[in-house]
Amino acid sequence: MKQQTFSDIEYSNRRKKTKREEFLDSMDEMIPWDHWVGIIRPYYPSGKRGRPPKSIEAMLRMYLMQNWFNLSDAGIEDAIYDSYAMRSFMHLDFLAQQVPDATTLLHFRHLIEENGIGERIFADVKARFDRAGLIMHGGTIVDATIIAAPSSTKNQEGKRDPEMHQTKKGNQWYHGMKVHSGTDAGSGYVHTITGTAANVHDIDEAAKLIREDDVVVYGDSGYSGVEKREEIRKDGHLSSVEFRTNKRSSSIRGCSSYKGINWDREMEQRKSSTRCKVEHPFLIVKK
After folding, report:
1. Which residue ranges make up each domain of the chain?
2. Percent of the chain with pLDDT over 70
3. Which pTM value belongs to this model?
């Protein structure tokens, strides 16, 4: 059992926990730390040369909080010093150790990205949900969203990120990338993610977001005609999937004086009520 500090004793007498503290406590209990540390260990510095590296688990906890709360490298370092909930989640005792600095976190993030560790952790989460029966299978919702990136060339290389691109949505131009998501229609859990430049059309990635046991796929009007794509028609399974895509609102006609049920509009609303589950992960990513 972890030895309590004076701060722990003082904070234990509070009448209420903050939402942040409750969230971090639940994540601390849910995440399989030993397994995820084992995924990272083969790529992590051994410490045989130079100064001893920080604990893998401490770096992983800091990296996850940075993503959850959308903070910069320096921002998460300062936040841990400021927040008792974050310090507790890090399992830090300032009498013996300090918060890893922003540069150390930068190197750790690059290690995660360069070795595809994020994809392996995502696959582990999906497998655990599957074994727990939290993913229903049979139906998928597909959608995509634009993630903005700096368009300025005022950086060390003097150019924009080659993986980013500009695209027009409505009457506005955006520069960045596009995240394509396949979400379980029953539970709302994301099961597949791909990333492309922003100018890649949503429909181009649709086939990669459909699971082998899906029988129905929901999508917005941007996916209209997806069943006619060559990669869909020539695949035995994909060609048998029922694509329930929303019609464009301009194609749904009805007389305003008609008092009965507009069945076209009713069916579109029912499709949208299922499809809206895909928007929640995008909200988390952007906020």
Report:
1. 6-119, 136-143+179-250+261-286
2. 90
3. 0.77
